[in-house]
Amino acid sequence: xxxxxxxxxxxxxxxxxxPAITAVVLQCERAVPGPREFTRDDAGWALDLPxxxxxxxxxxxxxxxxxxxxxxxxxxxxxxxxxAFGDRSVVELPGYAPPWWLSAPAVPGxxxxxxxxxxxxxxxxxTVWIPQDLPDTEPAxxxxxxxxxxxDQLASITTxxxxxxxxxxxxxHRVALAAPVIRDAWYSGSPQYLxxxxxxxxxxLGERYxxxxxxxxxxxxxxxxxxxxxxxxxxxxxxxxxxxxGSFFQVRHDLDESxxxxxxxxxxxxxxxxxxxxxQHPLVIGMSCGAIExxxxxxxxxxxxxxxxxxxxxxxxxxxxxxxxxxxxxLDPGLTHVLRTVWGxxx
Length: 347
Prior knowledge:
alpha/beta, 17 strands, five-stranded antiparallel sheet, eight-stranded mixed sheet, Immunoglobulin-like, Rossmann fold
């Protein structure tokens, strides 16, 4: 049966008495406290997981048969979600609701593909979403999103823009969906990538479209780190930043990540931001992070440092983890506040 909330825990079951099954293990983010190994009973396998502050949980089962392990979705749970690493079963706990804008009226849009050139060895593919009735020559704000295609596929960010334009919450604007060709190298503080976007990249978009007001940039995980670094580099041309679950690695918090090839570069760049004490170009910065996810401590440190340097910063702790649905659900009001502050309210 599907996971059941019983008192202070979630009960997971795999009702399969196949004698060849020797173990069942719950696969979910390691930040979630509690056991992972199921116990056998007369009907199959069961696990009780203590309820945390989460409102939803993505998971799979690892089913062992001797030396063989099959990783499967929960066969008793029809609710699944797409992720950057394939589909997951998902359980939604009391209090969870999807964002209102998913079912709101939306303006139609069109997609316009480009490539940006600069110092990177590869061109940067960018697809620009544009409201159908917005001419390229009409000045309008611009939002640039790192991991843009995944953000759109898994977090519906152009649906968000289309709905908030249609309902008058945001002014008509364009969304540049930047694709990472060499993600780890580019989104780990690559100076060549950052300069490419900050200079010729924004120049190229500005030549193709009439851009009004400061640009806003967004991203999650390594893309959230990149959004902050780009904002600091390109201000005041960039005026707003929205970073979700940013990978602001520090030695004191993130030793488990120290084997990552770009850990040293990231931690040095993060420390340089933490050491800042003033800024000539204050940014409007929104941040979100799962309250129990592993990036929470370094996000709190980054928010405090940016605020101390003179930026306007709002960090929201959400009841979810490191995934695109969590980032989707936090777009409003988090990103909305940044964009309305930087761009002004809709006419």
